[in-house]
Specification:
The protein is of the alpha+beta class and 253 residues long. It is 23% helix and 28% strand. It has a 5-stranded antiparallel β-sheet, with helices on both faces.
Length: 253
């Protein structure tokens, strides 16, 4: 059982340690006293709590469906919102890292089944309020939507996949060109023919691309660029294959 302001709130709720590496130290004064001659030293503010809110979910949605919707991101918790005992079509999703919120927001208006799902930024206090409401609704019972096992984490998947020499990039600026991607991988011997920018059905950049490296050793080494920035965007890298590359290119035609 988790705790909220020192009170037990219900089953299957974990307490998020404010001192953990994900969320930084507990918030306090913005200054700390330093006895050195330099006086006061400003502290860095803690990173934002990594939570998003989803709206428009199918009413038979499960935690596994949300994990698949955000495939590749670290899902820490999924809380389905109920009103008067019925699922409202909304949920909160807590992610592993603050930077993953930006990737989650890129899924706004993507479809889950036949529904278009909206994704919004949210706040720690809204998530905790929803937890309290769930406990009040359930009277200590478990939510019927919280039965599916969690998907493996982003890093676990990347470590376990066999390299083929092809990487998929996600989170690219829509204005990114092949030259921008070549510059991103400037330490590797690549040509424009090695870079494949993916377009959606409307002929617009999708924010994804595939890169063919000379060999698997280069693609493994290139994974050190995972979560680095291109322009103002964090870029995620995934091991891919020739089949996935061919399918992505054909979808954009």
């Amino acid at each position: 059982m988790a705790e909220l302001d020192g009170r037990e709130t219900g089953p299957k709720r974990q307490r998020f340690d404010q001192g953990s590496s994900f969320y930084g130290p507990s918030p306090g004064s913005s200054f700390m006293y330093n006895p050195s001659p330099y006086g006061y030293v400003e502290q860095q503010p803690p990173p934002p709590f990594p939570v998003v809110r989803l709206r428009g979910l199918p009413f038979d949605c499960t935690e596994a469906d949300v994990a698949e919707f955000f495939h590749g991101l670290d899902i820490v918790d999924v809380l389905f919102v109920r009103k008067d005992g019925k699922f409202s079509g909304e949920a909160f999703c807590v992610l592993g890292y603050p930077l993953q919120v930006d990737f989650a927001l890129q899924k706004n208006r993507f479809s889950m089944g036949r529904r278009y799902v909206e994704v919004f930024r949210s706040r720690r206090q809204d998530y905790y309020k929803a937890i309290a409401n769930e406990v009040s609704e359930n009277r200590g019972g478990a939510s019927p939507h919280r039965r599916a096992p969690r998907a493996r984490s982003h890093d676990e998947e990347k470590d376990s996949v066999e390299h083929t020499g092809i990487l998929r990039l996600r989170g690219l600026p829509y204005s990114a060109s092949k030259d921008d991607i070549l510059e991103f991988f400037r330490d590797f011997n690549l040509s424009e023919d090695s870079v494949h920018i993916v377009f959606n059905s409307e002929g617009r950049p999708s924010g994804e691309a595939y890169v063919e490296f000379a060999n698997t050793e280069d693609s493994k080494a290139a994974m050190t660029k995972d979560r680095m920035t291109l322009g103002s965007r964090y870029i995620e890298l995934f091991v891919s294959s020739h089949e996935e590359l061919d399918e992505a290119i054909s979808r954009g035609r």
